[in-house]
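Supplementary notes for students who missed Thursday's class. We covered one full example, reproduced here. Read the sequence, then the structure, then the short commentary at the end.
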Amino acid sequence: MGSFLYCLSNSRNILSRSRCDKCNHVLGVLDLIPVISFVFSKGRCRYCDSRISIMYPVSELITAFIYVLIIYRYSYSKETVMYLVLSSIMIYISFKDMKEMIIPDLSVVLGIINYVVFTDKCISGIINGFLISFILLMIKLCMERIYKKEMMGYGDIKLVFMLGLYTSIYGSCIALLLSSLTGLLVALLTKQKLFPFGQCVCLGYLLVFCFIR
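Structure (token representation):
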């Protein structure tokens, strides 16, 4: 699933056979074992010896860790399925935002559909989503008025609305606090004035879903 979500974020044709990004050679079974194939091939294609992106094993490890964490938190229940689907959407959004600095509308819509299908608290969830996204929108507009430049994309507002469906206002506030701290850390380490914030939002909410909610 990790490799699948990463390939999906790269706009790869997911219906075709897996191929090397460089030589386009069709990959065999031995090339597709998660993490292990990368380690034994020393991070290189067996057919053209070109380097394989480190993001493939990283995406596999991250996805596996998150799935296990969710199953541990919610055991075997309907909520487990709901959060496994949601976490998959969040992982895809994080990779897409990291690569292209966009949050696809379809992924937000799928997150909303997932919530409606698996929960019977639609009204309270929608209220929570609207409230937290409205608060974030007001903060964005105020900061942009003060600093005279765009501080946050509207894609992040839509993402917060979707994720806000799944938790309370309190949980969302904690998630946004964690997201902001993560974003600040990223800014300090990379020294970039502009960076994708969607992955920080996803991490903040994921921590809330797994440890607070």
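Commentary. The two ends are 25 Å apart (CA to CA). The chain has a mean pLDDT of 87. If anything here is unclear, bring it to office hours.
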